[in-house]
């Protein structure tokens, strides 16, 4: 692995897994998104993880974001086969880590809105209440919490009820660590309008929670959002800044990896300890993040130690 934690003061995450899989020639036009390849082309997922490690990432985030038991069942898989596919997502990331010489495996826990596949992860407009969200998440959560991943990446959470559901699931599984990151609609609020500060407070001081933060949100909002998180280390991995055209299912605009890397310095200086990219970011974005942070690391700082965030036995 090309990462050198003694030369930077943050843990560098990977970038958009689906984005890179598409660059490798994979067709992800499916409700399962990148999780489709767990059935059809797991070698491509392995290659994507390897490419992110080679670019300087310290973390591989698994291809389980859009995986769920109901979605796999609709594709003709029975329960034990769906469970095996979720476990495979972790094994592929672990293999890439081992081949690359080390790193962290984060098992992705996507929001209920990702399963709905209607953009609800960016609105929080759900048909389930908090209890319903706990029940919906629990089967996949239990698999990934016991999968051997180093931690869970609870990501793109758009609503306060879902944040509360995640907190309850963490309480049920005291042996596992996690980060929790939210999708936000502006520089202060989650996608459903709840103040980020209120949601972040649910996890402040929780020894299981290694970081709280923001993902799949415009880079221009990140610095201000960081200021609304207290009492926890901070994780940020915004999207590229491009705009999703939901009607035509395409991305609009461009994003420069060099500018993204430069922005990562601002996020670190504002307090972020974990930095990466989300949708539409690539290995080149991660390479630029590492180069930028290494070039500007404060004298005498060390990296975020991996053994501080791994799952507890």
UniProtKB/TrEMBL annotation:
Its cofactor is Zn(2+). Zn(2+) binds at residues 216, 278-279. Transmembrane segments: none annotated. InterPro entries: BHMT-like (IPR017226), HCY_dom (IPR003726), HCY_dom_sf (IPR036589), Hcy_S-methyltransferase (IPR051486). The keyword Cell division does not apply. Residues 1-293 form the Hcy-binding domain. Keywords: Metal-binding, Methyltransferase, Transferase, Zinc. NCBIfam families: PRK09485.1. This is Homocysteine S-methyltransferase. The lineage of its organism: Bacteria, Bacillati, Actinomycetota, Actinomycetes, Streptosporangiales.
